[in-house]
Amino acid sequence: MGTPDFAVPSLRILVQNGYKVVGVVTATDKYGGRGKKQLLESPVKKYAVEQGIPVLQPKNLKSPEFQEELRGLNANLQVVVAFRMLPEAVWDMPEYGTFNLHGSLLPRYRGAAPINWAVINGDAETGVTTFFIRHQIDTGDVLFQEKMPIGPNETAGAVHDRMMLLGAETVLKTVKAIESGDYQLQKQDDALATKAPKLFRETCEIDFAQPIEKVHNFVRGLSPYPAAWTTLEGKQLKILRAHYEKADVDATPGTFRSDNKSWIKIAAPDGWLVVEELQMQGRKRMKANDFLNGFSF
């Protein structure tokens, strides 16, 4: 059960290792592209169709018709990777239960955006967790965890791309362990839990009054999506890649400086955010020097 690119390696590794995947549950097709006229299939669906795996795309997971169709697949284990919350009737259906792959070292970063928040908070390490699904989201007993570093300049997108491969390996390890019965469950310590709530446009505005390192972490933690932003001449300006310089700053936080040729800097109390890639509202993503070819401060 999954939808985005993040879930594809986990499905692929099970297929490649000879496991009988009797079905895939994924999101319904949606219109997108230019003018929203193109019907788009999820990455998981595309791979499943290529492999001849039956695909279920329910609008409502509580639908009796969907649940009957799912039960008819006779799966003895369900694997969830980047999918929506399941009703108990679904996750409790198979003989061996349902486990989820989560993009953090639970109980840290329970919620919808664990990768983003780990980078925003400047963590040097994150990882993946597999756990059996229970009633409360991301609280089930842990099967396995694997750690991975976060580089000091790494974006959430880069962490995501590495994590989905580590996640796939962990999914395979988990399936093998459940198959053999060779695993020990570990309860999560709720006292150590932190949250990773969903990100919205209004919460992605950059606060340049924060220390420069926090500003930098905020930018890379939201790159490439949903993207940290500020305003320039009344328009939204997304900052997609940047680095920072510690310095004594003689400007109000949020002030732009540029040589109008190759660099753009934005002031924070204790340094400058040096913009490398950006996207002005209504324009495409571009490097700072390319942006300055048609814009002057």
From TrEMBL:
Keywords attached to this Swiss-Prot or TrEMBL record, sorted alphabetically, are: Protein biosynthesis, Transferase
Where on this chain does (6S)-5,6,7,8-tetrahydrofolate bind? 104-107
Q: Where is the signal peptide?
A: none
Kindly report, in one word, the top-level EC class recorded for this enzyme: transferase
Give all residue intervals belonging to the Formyl transferase C-terminal domain.
Answer: 199-295
Extract the CDD domains matched here: FMT_core_Met-tRNA-FMT_N (cd08646), Met_tRNA_FMT_C (cd08704)
Recorded catalytic reaction(s): these are: L-methionyl-tRNA(fMet) + (6R)-10-formyltetrahydrofolate = N-formyl-L-methionyl-tRNA(fMet) + (6S)-5,6,7,8-tetrahydrofolate + H(+)
GO CC, alphabetical: cytosol
The chain positions of domain Formyl transferase N-terminal read 5-170
- Gene3D superfamilies, alphabetically? 3.40.50.12230
Offer one Pfam family short name for this entry: Formyl_trans_C
Report the sequence similarity comment from the record.
Belongs to the Fmt family.
Record function comment: Attaches a formyl group to the free amino group of methionyl-tRNA(fMet). The formyl group appears to play a dual role in the initiator identity of N-formylmethionyl-tRNA by promoting its recognition by IF2 and preventing the misappropriation of this tRNA by the elongation apparatus.
What is this protein's record name?
Methionyl-tRNA formyltransferase
According to its UniProt entry, this protein's organism is Phaeodactylibacter xiamenensis
Q: By which gene is this protein encoded?
A: fmt
